[in-house]
Amino acid sequence: MSSFAPIVRYSFAPILFLVTNGVAIWLITAGLSKIGLAGLLGLAIIASLLAERIAPYEPQWNQAQGDRARDIIHATVNEGSTIFAVALLPVISSFGFGANLWPHEWPLWLQLLMAILIADFGITLAHYSSHRISWLWRLHAVHHSVRRLYGFNGLMKHPLHQTIELIAGTLPLILLGITMDVAALLALAVALQLLLQHTNADIRIGSLGYIWAVAPGHRLHHRASETEGNVNFGLFTLMWDHLLGTFRHPRRQVRNDEIGLADSFDYPATYSGQLIEPFRKT
Q1: Prediction pTM value
Q2: Could you report the per-residue pLDDT of 1-47, keeping only the tens digit for each?
Q3: I want to staple 151 with a disulfide (CB 3.0 to 4.6 A). Which of 31, 63, 161, 199 is the partner?
Q4: Domain count of the chain?
Q5: For residue 16, is it left (φ>0), alpha (ψ between -120 and 50) or beta?
Q6: How many CB atoms lie under 10 A from the CB of residue 109?
Q7: Which residues of 223-256 are buried (b: 16+ CB within 10 A; e: fewer)?
Q8: How big is the chain by its Cα radius of gyration, in Å?
């Protein structure tokens, strides 16, 4: 075991989230290019991959299963669509959408926190609905078809489901008049959170596991069992799961052979196959 493993287990998650978002806020406050945010995400992905090697939760999940190219395409398409959506904000504003109620005078970190909490509510409800409405599940099943969990495949989603979650999370923010700066910071925060939800690093967060929706709790959500996997839907927090009655504390570990789709052992593993699969007749 690496001598750095204990450090990674207890400090990787909070450092990645707080420091990366903190640097991002500084970049925006300093008036620097938003391209720097893409660089920060790239560094976060590298840090996630390193942490998974130093302190793996499930060593087998560090081995590629012919999924690297597919996951790269998913991440590129989905992050590209998010960047495009952020870039559209000035156009949306020009049509008079939004009530200009956004608290521009607040510190940027507090504006981001507000955006995270509002987006968390919308995305959590969209996620919860995706496990209960059949046509939404068919789109969402792409994400649940993974056979291993590691940070990078947190960005693996069908583009239509990505769009649905994007609308659910950001429409209230747009109506409030969110700024482009805060929207860009939120996009980075979402990507970082997805890395931490799916990381194969053996992160330990103690009592924060009751409220912070990162890997220990989210692994339960990826269990192949339809009943036992319908838990812990939150993106950033688990507070809505507490209210919905879907919170489960990760007292029991989830292992390699317990994740995936319970009713589909031949789900397509290629990007093109996963684009088409939700529309195939059963």
Answers
A1: 0.93
A2: 578 999 999 999 999 999 999 999 999 999 999 899 999 999 999 99
A3: 199
A4: 1
A5: alpha
A6: 14
A7: bbeeeebbbbbbbbbbbbbeeeebbbebeeebee
A8: 18
